[in-house]
Specification:
Elements: H1 6-36, H2 46-57, H3 62-73, E1 80-87, E2 93-100, H4 103-116, E3 120-121, H5 150-165, E4 169-174
Helix pairs in contact: 1-2, 1-3
Length: about 180
Amino acid sequence: MSGHSHWAGIKHKKEEKDSKRGAVFSKLLNAISVAAKPEPNPDFNPRLRTAIEKAREANIPHNNIQKAIKGAVEKSMNLEELVFEAYGPGGAAILIIAITGSHNKTVAEIKKVLSANHGKWAEPGSVRWAFSEILPGKDPEAKFTEDIAPEEKSGLLALIRALHDHEDVQGVYTNLAV
């Protein structure tokens, strides 16, 4: 009966929990690094201040936050923020915000997630008009909401979940009426 000990069960649960926590830490620290590039002082950079607050809420150690800021200042981290536009099932407009060190890899992976979940890649500017301006520390809001059929809504929600699961994606916004 190997593998059936109490410790083995705890170890497997801890591994799963730690991997999810690590993914959240990675996303938040990348957001801090990108926000710290123009101004590393949170007193003068509201976007950085917001990113640090979110990291503290997720219990990220202070040392890790400082390393992310220092890495951005020293330009050792080659991260960039990207905004992708897409259409989901039912024609719902989708904005995807990602932070990555490899632009081409992330574009290919996002396109793959979209095609696997019945989404369509959109040209720059074709979706952004439907949302408020993207401001530091503020999520874009839909100017016009849209209702879609229930079967298409479930497909859209599956697409949004798949996008959120991608390691580089920071946020996914849609004009779906709630």
